[in-house]
Known about the structure:
By secondary structure, the protein is of the alpha/beta class. The chain has 19 helices and 26 strands. Among the domains are: 1-17 and 25-153, Rossmann fold; 418-513, ANL, C-terminal domain (GMP Synthetase, Chain A, domain 3, 2-Layer Sandwich), CATH 3.30.300.30. The strands form six sheets. It has a nine-stranded mixed beta sheet, with helices on both faces. Strands 16, 17, 19, 20 and 21 form a five-stranded antiparallel beta sheet that branches.
Amino acid sequence: MNLAHLLQRQASIDPERPAILNGTQLVATHGQWAQRCQHLARQFQAAGLQPGDRVALFMRNHVRTLEVIFAAWWAGLAVVPINAKLHLREAQWIMDNAQARWAFVTADITSKTDDKLTGLERLVDLDSAEADALWFLPAKGYQAGCETPIAERHADDLAWLFYTSGTTGRPKGVMITHRNLMTMGLAYFCDVDAISPQDTIAYAAPMSHGAGIYAIPHLMAGARHMVPPSGGFDPAELFALGEQVGPLSMFAAPTIVKRLVDHAEAAGLSMQTCSQTFKTVVYGGAPMYAADIQRALRVMGPCFVQIYGQGESPMVGTALSRHHLQDTAHPRHLERLASVGVAQTPVRIRVTDAHGQDLPTGEVGEVLIQGDSVMAGYWRNPEATASAIQKDWLFTGDMGCLDADGFLTLKDRSKDMIISGGSNIYPREIEEVLLHAPGVAEVAVVGAPDPEWGEVVVAFVVPQTGHELDTATLDALCLQEIARFKRPKRYEIVASLPKNNYGKVLKTELRKRLG
C-alpha cells in the first residue's frame, strides 16, 4: 500500500481534470501532478535516497507542497511536515531528530533569522531556480505505465512523521503510516462529507497539519486543491475565491470559523451567499463553544461539521455531523452542540478512570481511541509509546464523558484540569458560562497555585471591541450558573489571548503570567 497510488489512479482515469490551483489560476492537472511527482521521485532516487528515508517540509502553504509530498511517497520516502511558525532552531531540532536527508523550504520562513539550517544533504527553496530545474519536464502529456514505478510500501510503513506542539518539552515525532492516512481518507466519506470531482478544497490552515492531509480524501474523489495566493487565512480573500471557483471546502480551527463569521456579518452577507461560497467547513483542533457554533449556523448556514482527533489519530476520533448540528428538535440538541459527536466509523471510543476501567455514562475520565487510524508510535521514543498506547488503545490525555447515545463531550486536557480543595474543576465549563456574558469576546480559564486550596480558578477575559467589562457582573453570572467552588477567584481583563497558529490558546503562557 502506497498513498501515491491514489494519484496514479486519478491521473490514469482523467489526466486532464484540473487538480491544483493557485487561487483561480490552474497550476496542474491530475496528469501533470503525477508527471511532476514521478519526475521528482527520480531525482530522489538518483541522489541515493532510499525507501523509508525522511524529507522535511518547512514552508508556508505553497502550490508545490502537494507535489513534494506525493513525490516523496512515490519514491517510498516519509514526509516530515514542520510548523512554519517555529523558530529555525526548533525546525533544526526536528530535522535532526527525524534524521531528515533533504528539506524543502520557502525563503520567507528561513530568512527570519541569521541562523542557517545544517546537516542536510540538500536544501531546496521552492521558489528558486533550483526547484524549477527539479520540476523541469518535457512538454508531453501523462502516460500511464510509462512513469517511474511507485516504490512498494507496506501498509504499516511510515508515511508522515508529525511532530507534536511540544508545549511541555521537546516535541515528539508521531509515526503515521500509509494505513493510518488511508483510513483517515476513507473515514472522511463515511463520517464527514461527500466529495465530488467538482469540489475544491482550500488550504487556508497550515498544510503541515490536518488541513494538508485532507488532500487525501479529495484526491480520492478527483476534486481540486486550491492554495490561496496569500498562502494563509484571509476571510475576504476566501469569500472572493469561493464566488469565483465555486463553493469551497476547508478545515478550520474555531478561531478561523469565528473570523469567517465576523467577516460575513460585517459585510452583510446573507446565508444564501455564504452557502454559495462555502460547501463544507470542518472545524476542530481546539474547543468550539456552543454559543459560537450557534452563531455560525445562524450567519453562514449548515455548512459546518465538527471532528475530533489528535496528531496520534489524525483527524479521526469523533464527528458531529451536519444533521446533528441542525437537529434543533432533538430534546438534547444543546448538549449535542457542546459535544464533539460520536465515534467515527473506523474507531472505538472509551472513557476510563485512572486505572483504565470504563466509567459509567456521564462520568468524566480519560478518552481512549482504538482503530486503524492510531499511530504506530513515537519516533525513537519507546517509553512515550508504551505510555500512550496500551493494549492497542491510545490514551489521549483528553478528559471527557459519553452520554447514553454515544456522544462524547470533552472537558479539558488532563493537564488543564484544576484541582482546588480536592475537587476537580474543568475550565471549559466555566468558559462556556462566561462566553454568554454581554461584551465578552474570548475566555480562557486556568489554575493558579494557592497555598490553602492547592489551586484557584483564574479567568482571562477578552472584551469585545468598544465594551468595558464589570467583573462583578461576570462573577454574578458564574454564581447563577455553576457551583460556587468552581467560580473564578480572579478575573484578568486582557486585550488578547496567546495562541499558536492553529488557534489553540496557550494556557502554559497564561500560567506563566500568574507566577
